[in-house]
Amino acid sequence: xxxxxxxxxxxxxxxxxxxxxxxxxxxxxxTLLRERFTxxxxxxxxxxxxxxxxxxxxxxxxxxxxxxxxTYTHKxxxxxxxxxxxxxxxxxx
Length: 93
Known about the structure:
Elements: H1 26-40, H2 42-54, H3 58-69, H4 74-90
Helix pairs in contact: 1-2, 1-3, 2-3, 2-4
């Protein structure tokens, strides 16, 4: 949920933007995740598939991974997803 203090209006009130809320359609959410992971390469897509298969909250965890990867350069993200995919394939749950 996105909350913010309004500027120029009543302060301390919650403001929520509907566009920032997760999609109510789980298939649309998974499609968006797949698009984002595809941009990172085939290893990242395999990582996503393993995450969705093995974890109960895989979609939420995948979203967190994307948020964390936003702080890294593309080269670092590709390396991280490669090693994560290798670790996931070595230790299937």
